[in-house]
Every structure is written in structure tokens, then in C-alpha cells.
């Protein structure tokens, strides 16, 4: 387990470093999992407050047929605004810029200005000049015109808890390029820029404010300007657009009862609703009056380019599509703000805690050496995704990529380590297991994975068998004959012990055999099998004598009691054996077969447990070495006829 603990510590340290340094590689995969959750969830059912008027291919070709090609004359926009408000629209937002005068006829600008002046609830979008060097290269007349057109600064945020601004890193731009003064002096204007996209090129957030450096340099204002979508929400809520508040401590923009959150970069996290959420009506149909007026009643209407508007590219990548028009992103952001929806990214501490708990889960299931239990650790992967997905459905994204990777690394490392160790143990035990225990017992041990045979105390039946007068026999035979005779005898006795009665051959000591019943696997009939084995060994000895014209005799001692069983020896050489008082006592009992008129002698513990099925003769009480009290011993005569 030490290697897993060390590996877990390394993984957590690496994760802390990733979080601290905001490694893009990790964030890339987290964001892709987030997108996957969006697709799994699919679209949600809402009643949107936003409707889209699309500048689409149909509108472009229809006006082209009327001899007006892009960019359109401003009177078209005036007609559309008039028709929308007459249909009950509450706010009209332009995701289109009006930074130059009408190229066809300046009078069309006057018409459009008169319309927006009449209906008021119009917000004009515009773009940004990001770099100071770029602005410095502008024509002086253009710069003078822009610097006299600063009505957009009327909507600069009022700041609360300004000291906390030190912890905020807002997106800084040099200058807003507002709509022409003829329009910007009449209605609010603000940037429609999406801002910085995520590392994988997907739009998942939108800035609630930008810091304009030019206004700050000139000492005109703080330069913290709201986004177009914020102004749209404020206008819809009938708020004072000149008194919008940004709280840098709570990280919220306050619009009446709405609290719109932002992160350290001033970004609002968009919560996407899915496809086909917002109704889209063609610009040309609005201008010609070919639409259902009920659609726009008390709605925010955004006018902007759609995916079919050839040549007017304003497409972005979102979790649902690689070609999402910017106007749909604005619609989603506005609806999010109105509904209080946003996708909150779990805090760093919560992410670290979640990863730690996932690792602890794996470690708990890795404590076992059972591969099947170890595999349960891999359940951490679907569990992590499930927890993260359930939180996602509640608009909280809890990072899951690194926890999953960590759990897979730990689980596979542990399973691989245990498989290697198990294979080593199997190989090692196979070297002697099949030689000493019955085949079915050996197969069971290996298949069940119960190969850790060391260090336990259990009740076993010990059987000692020895040839009487073997020393004198060995003097009569040469070495080759003696070895052949002994091997033949031990093979026949071992076959009975091992294969007929499922006993474990503990060891051979010269002509002596030590066998154990009840280890490594214990059965309910260990004593019965040991006694039957002893009787058959005596029968087999008579056959052996007859076949080899010999007159060998053997003594057998049987005892039952607790013993320590396990792998005993040195790391380079060990045997599975049994030690303890029960083994020593059994050896002493077997030696008494040379002194008493009995060939199979059992202890009182065996007699008490087997007297119902076997016949015994009481031999008396005898003292043996190592025992302070005499032992009651019995001769085994045979099985009872039941």
C-alpha cells in the first residue's frame, strides 16, 4: 500500500500545482467534459424573455432585389424599430454597429434618429479599439470626432467596495468606438464584444464590464463600462442605467433585485439552454409587417446576424454548435441574467476536496489483495461523473477530469501490482503445492486466490507414520535398493493420504511421513478422514509386503489440536508446515507404537470426537516428553458397523 500512498500524495501535489498555475492542458479536458454534460442534458424548456430578429440571407436577398445591398440604408432599421415597439416590444437591442454615417443618404440617419428618439428603449451595440497603438494611428479628424463623442461614459458603473478591485483583473481595452453622435446622444450604447474565449475556442462566458484605459487616462471616469447585455437587462427592469452598481467585494452587478455574479476577470459564466430556445423572425418580415405581433409583447428584441447571413460572419463555437451566431449568445446571456441562471465553477478548495475524497475511496478498496475488490475502486470513475453531472444540472460544475485520471492511475497501479504479486505467489506455491496437497485442494486454493498461507493458528489433525526397524533394514540393503524400496513405499502411502483422503503431506523425514488434515483447507470430517487414511495405510502396507516379499511394519500416531500453520523458513527457502505442541505430541504418540502392542495410536481428543463411528481400545495413561500430565491413549481398531 505504501506505493499507493506515495502516488496519491504526488497526484494531489500535482493537482495543487495545476490549480495554482491554471494549466491550460487540464482546463481543456475539464471544459470538454462540461460540453459533454450539456449534450447529455440536451435542451431545457423555458419561456424566454428574448426574441431574435435575424439579419439573414432571406433579408439580404430581399432588400437586394429592392436595390439596397449591404450595408443597408438606415431607414430600414427605423421601420423595424417602429414596427417592433408597435407590436409591444419593451427593449430593442442592436448587435450591429452604427459607427459611420449612412453611405446612401444622410437623411436616413435623421429618420432612424427620430425613431429611436421617440421610442427611447433602444440600446446600440458597438465595438472596441483594444490597443493604444492602433488608436494612435487613427486619422486626427476621426480621433477628434471620437473624443467628442463620449455619451457612452454616462453609463459608467458606480463602484462599491473599491478596495477589493485589487483582486479583480478586468479585461482592459483602450477605447470604445461608439455609434455616431447623432445616435449615441439619444439612446444608450455599449460594446457587444464577447470578450476572451476559453482555451479550446468555445464561448462559455461574457464580460459584465470592460475597463476603458482612455477614459481613465483622461481623468474623465473610472472607465468601468457595462456590456450591452447588462444595459439591456437594466432597461428591461426599468432601472436607472446611469446608476448601475458593481460590487467588487461580493463580485456582483446590482440591477434592482437582480444580483449578477462575475469571476476575478469580470466574466459572467453562461448557462446554455440548448438549441431552438429563442424564436427568430426575419428582419425583412418585421419591416414588411409580415409577422405575429404577439411574439414581441413585453420582450427584449435583439437584432443581429444569423448563420445564413453570407458574408456577415458572426459565428462562434458553443457547447451545442460550432456555428452559433453571436446574437444567440447575447440572447442566452440576457436570459441568464433575468432568470438568475449561471454556471458556477466550483471553488478551488471544493475541487481539491472532491479529488481527495475520490482518492480515499480508491485507497479503501485497494487495501484488499482480492482483485475483484480492487476492481470496485474503478467504480469511482462513474461515481465522479455522476456527482459532477448532478451538480451540473443544478448549475454548478465540479471538475472531474483530474479526479477521474487520478483514480484510474491509482486503481490500475494497484490492480497491476496485485496481479503481479498474485502471479508470483501462484508460481511459487505451484512449485510445491501440487506435490503435498490433493489436486482438488491445490486447484481450489489457486483459483480462489487464497494463496497467503502463512501465520495462522487453527485446529488440525496430525498424522505421523514411521517404519519400525528401518535402521536395521537399511543395513541389509545397498543404497540403490534402499532408495528404490523407500520411494516405492512413500509413493503408495502418499497417494492414499493426498489423493484418497485429501490430506496435506507436511514433510518426509527419512522413512517417516507427517501429514495434516484441516490445513490449508479445513473440512467437517478431518478426523474421520485421518482415521480412515490410517486404516487404509495399514492395508496398503500388507499389500506392499506381499508384493515385495517383505515383512515391514509401521507405527501411526494421530492427534487433534491447535497448531501454527503457514510458510516457515527463510525468504529464499520456506515450506508450508505445521508447528507447535500438537505436532510434537503426535510425534511422541507415534513413537509409543514401538513400546505398546498397537500399530495405530490416537490421543484422547481424537477418541472423544470419533468414538461414535470408530472402534477403539483404551491403552492406558502414558507420559510423553514435553507433557507434565500423562496422556490417555487409544488403539484404533477399525470402523464401526452402522
UniProtKB/TrEMBL annotation:
Q: Name one GO biological process term.
A: intracellular signal transduction
The residues that cross the membrane are 5-25, 348-366, 373-394
Q: Provide the alphabetized UniProt keywords.
A: Membrane, Transmembrane, Transmembrane helix
Q: Where is the Guanylate cyclase domain?
A: 461-590
Q: Where is the signal peptide?
A: none
| Name of the molecule in the record | Adenylate cyclase
Q: Please provide, alphabetically and separated by semicolons, the GO molecular function terms listed in this UniProt record.
A: adenylate cyclase activity
InterPro entries (alphabetical)? A/G_cyclase, Adenylyl/Guanylyl_Cyclase_3/4, CHASE2, Nucleotide_cyclase
Top-level taxonomic group: Bacteria
Q: List the PROSITE patterns.
A: GUANYLATE_CYCLASE_2
Q: Name one Pfam family in it.
A: Guanylate_cyc
Q: What is the lineage of its organism?
A: Bacteria, Thermotogati, Thermotogota, Thermotogae, Thermotogales
List the SUPFAM superfamilies. Answer: Nucleotide cyclase
The organism is Thermosipho africanus (strain TCF52B)
